[in-house]
């Protein structure tokens, strides 16, 4: 018996043993409709992108308007108290299967990648929302996923057949009331942590800008285009044929996905064949090179560490600092708000920003003696380290609060404690998530 099902034996004796489907009266696929008529008859179409995932509610404001003819609208119309279940989509870090509560009042349907769930008679919609949140956290949706062509599809028949235990409606409402209050309190703490993290990020930007003399476009130093201050600026190889990628051997290669401001994530490097080495050797990296993302998080820059010397890079800009430019100083400059504004101004692309090498070469950079650059880096490292440590602490606290929230929901809807006597504080110790 799995851990997700074991709790049913421990649930209060007064609770009914059954399956998730006993809590659901009807599950029906949604519709995408057609292009909006823009005559006042269009309805909102809720997608997974419109889920407020932490709160398990619909965010209706950004849901697109679509046209659904009157006869079909009777079939697809969402009613307050319905739930919307994501059936197709998801990803490695965010599996398909999350459900959110629709509270209205705007006339809406859900997309064809989702399903509309109507609670069974005697089932509180908020309680059902929390139940499905607990089931998602326990992995019941993940175990019912069928993946084809990179898209996750939830087998709702398998998922709804999962064993479950549940109380009568009166107790469901008490549990939902308790969780509404306690999760709101936790969400308030998470929001404050997020606000503090944002303030720290702003302070960090200010510290860097002041140290580099880049504040308010009133530069304290002589400026020169980057191309005149470094040894060289090139672009890594662009590889599209699948035959270049190999499972073993070959040369490790960085991609844009591996680079964040000031950080290179090297745990999932691709490897490329050494075939045609004469053509791609020019993009082999040296320790101290600064790689810059061209597509996606355009402009993000990081220094290549010694252990990645000899690796290759795919579609990244490579800046070779030379003897008159300190790599870490250049990293600070390129990740500064000042340089990022230059990237945003010259990047192209409506879906993903793309930054080209020509614009990279023209970025004005402070022209300073090497010794001065190194002093600035030392001072910044000391000041920024404290701010980064505090930011990491707030992020860790936010993660702990999110985990506590999930544990509290699971404990309440599985009967691990009686909400009528629980304060909501320190009552998740010793319970399973």
TrEMBL record:
<dbReference type="InterPro" id="IPR051212">
    <property type="entry name" value="Type-I_RE_S_subunit"/>
</dbReference>
<protein>
    <recommendedName>
        <fullName>Type I restriction modification DNA specificity domain-containing protein</fullName>
    </recommendedName>
</protein>
<dbReference type="GO" id="GO:0003677">
    <property type="term" value="F:DNA binding"/>
</dbReference>
<dbReference type="GO" id="GO:0009307">
    <property type="term" value="P:DNA restriction-modification system"/>
</dbReference>
<keyword id="KW-0680">Restriction system</keyword>
<keyword id="KW-0238">DNA-binding</keyword>
<dbReference type="InterPro" id="IPR044946">
    <property type="entry name" value="Restrct_endonuc_typeI_TRD_sf"/>
</dbReference>
